[in-house]
Amino acid sequence: MYTALVLAGVFAIATTNSYHPDEPGSVRGTVRRDELSASFWQEHAQATVKRRSGTKTGPAARNVILFLGDGMSVPTLAAARTLLGQRRGYSGEEAELSFETFPTSGLSKTYCVNAQVADSACSATAYLCGVKANQGTLGVSASVPRSNCSASLEPAARLQSIAAWALADGRDAGIVTNTRVTHASPAAAYARAANRNWENDARVRADGADPQKCPDIATQLITENPGRQFKVILGGGRREFLPSHVVDEEGSKGTRTDGRNLIEEWRSDKIERKVIHSYVWNREQLLSANATMPEYLLGLFESSHLQYNMLTNPTTEPSLAELTEVAIRMLQRNDKGFFLFVEGGRIDHAHHGNNAEMALDETIELSAAVSRAAELLDETDSLLVVTADHAHVMSFNGYAARGSNILGTSRATDRHGVPYMTLSYTNGPGFRAHVERKRVDITKEENYGSVEWKSHVDVPLLSETHGGDDVAVFARGPQHALFSGLYEQNAIPHLMAYAACIGPGEHVCKH
């Protein structure tokens, strides 16, 4: 019989993150004691693999790419495909995102060990390391409370990601994101941290922890395995790698207080290892690297996150599809294969701001990146998996006619005769105070329909919250059928590892 443990007290929290509050959900709760261990979730995932694989044989995957649409809920998919179709001049609803054509689709459950609604750290730990964890923690088991440095140093609590499994097999690995490369989603591929906010040494110290004992996430990427082994690292976040007295190429200061320049340390490491390498910070340099193909590539294109696609300068900042293509071309030189993580991370940020159009556009950008990968890689030996870490609270509602502008109002009005949007949010910064107990007519606002206009919401918050819905999973390539049905999110890396014959547990190669 399983016993229960009432988690005592509130876990320590760090300074506020503008998109992800430190306590977006409950940090109290009753959980089974065994759920605090990594082995519980590993065994549960392996049972899922065994149940789904049975005695089947078949081809193994040489290459694996996990595409992650951060916050890409099912309503986001439906609305994004409609917008895509309408941009092409059709009614829209019949359109398909590139990965919606994949032969297998399923659903994953996204809750964390201590929360009904996941954040991007505990969910990343699940889909990259195969173990469910506590909110706000990366690469460690649920035995680690948030911000508890000493607990995160316990060997049994420290996890390996599927990127590390691939490297151990002699394959190459890399990460691509349009957020900071130290942000929660990509960080779970290489870091172990008791707090997702520990992206630089100053943030570790601000929590009362010692960065000498618990190195910040940027330091782990550059100086520790598996991060220092990644052949390609592309995204944003220059500030996390530079000391506070250094100004980067675009005029922004670093955030480090230890005086270390981790970009230079990355270069020094590659020089010492006598490998061809390149650091790039703009699109022109990226395309040049794409032509010369160094052995190692570090690209940091913004001080923080990359710009939203609808607000960016495409001549200076690369698209997610371009980043993905460069990464694939670099990694596919290894005859044994590779693992690549690609994140469309700004879907999440747009939703947090109630910016529906930008969230859908970022989803379309992810679709373009998946399409590019599908063109470059053979379906017979490359497994592509597309999923989300968690949902959001945008609803697709009302009774608008077929072909109605997905970014417009519903056909109906509320009981006071005031129009409402087809896409709206249950909470967030887009709240408008009622006047005489009636909603205001948002269609009369001066900036109505502009790119950064905020859809209306019910509950006023500074930032919209995640949702607890199941999220979709799409798969194409060797063993794609494993990803059908409903399963725990932490089964995803184990299913990919089974198909690729890497990491612990069952493998198709053993049948």
TrEMBL record:
It catalyses: a phosphate monoester + H2O = an alcohol + phosphate. Transmembrane segments: none annotated. The keyword Cell wall biogenesis/degradation does not apply. Keywords: Cell membrane, Glycoprotein, GPI-anchor, Hydrolase, Lipoprotein, Magnesium, Membrane, Metal-binding, Signal, Zinc. Its cofactor is Mg(2+); Zn(2+). The keyword Glycoprotein applies. Its EC number is 3.1.3.1. InterPro entries: Alkaline_phosphatase, Alkaline_phosphatase_AS, Alkaline_phosphatase_core_sf. Pfam families: Alk_phosphatase. The active site is at S120. Zn(2+) binds at D70, D348, H352, D389, H390, H466. PANTHER family: ALKALINE PHOSPHATASE, ALKALINE PHOSPHATASE-RELATED. Belongs to the alkaline phosphatase family. This is Alkaline phosphatase. The lineage of its organism: Eukaryota, Metazoa, Ecdysozoa, Arthropoda, Hexapoda.
